[in-house]
Amino acid sequence: QVQLVESGGGLVQSGGSLRLSCAASGSIFSFHVMGWYRQAPGKRRELVATITSDGSTNYADSVKGRFTISRDNPKNTVYLQMNSLKPEDTAVYYCNTDTWRFPWGQGTQVTVSS
Fold first, then answer.
1. What pLDDT digit, counting tens, does each position of 81-113 carry?
2. DSSP state letter for 104
3. pLDDT of amino acid 27
């Protein structure tokens, strides 16, 4: 069973940056489209960005130009570089495949103060 462990969140001021990491156990990681998701209090979980096994990326309009998703297949890790953070980016951030194939990890809290 693949396990996902997110890290790198924290408290940052508006305009700041954070880099999130998601480490996956299991060698099948590299075959999947991976995504970063976020869930703010009282809101549904939403897709932030995806990356295919060969590195093609897509972003939600709300983060386009500010966030960058990347992956290191040999390390079974996917990253999310977040720049120019805004208070509305405050949420718990999770990673998973594009079809939610794996059990959800605990997520990592990102809080952006104004």
1. 999 999 999 999 999 999 999 999 999 999 999
2. P
3. 63
Q: Are 52 and 33 in contact (CB under 8 A)?
A: yes
- What is the pLDDT averaged over residues 18-43? 90
Name the residue with tokens 């509305």: 88
Per-residue pLDDT averaged across 26-40, rounded? Answer: 86
Measured CA to CA, the distance from residue 81 to residue 9 in angstroms comes to: 11
Q: Classify residue 61 by burial, with Cβ atoms within 10 Å: 0-12, 13-18, 19+.
A: exposed
Are the C-beta atoms of residues 14 and 112 closer than 8 Å to each other?
yes
Q: What is the pLDDT of residue 83?
A: 98
C-alpha span between 67 and 71 (Å, rounded)? 14
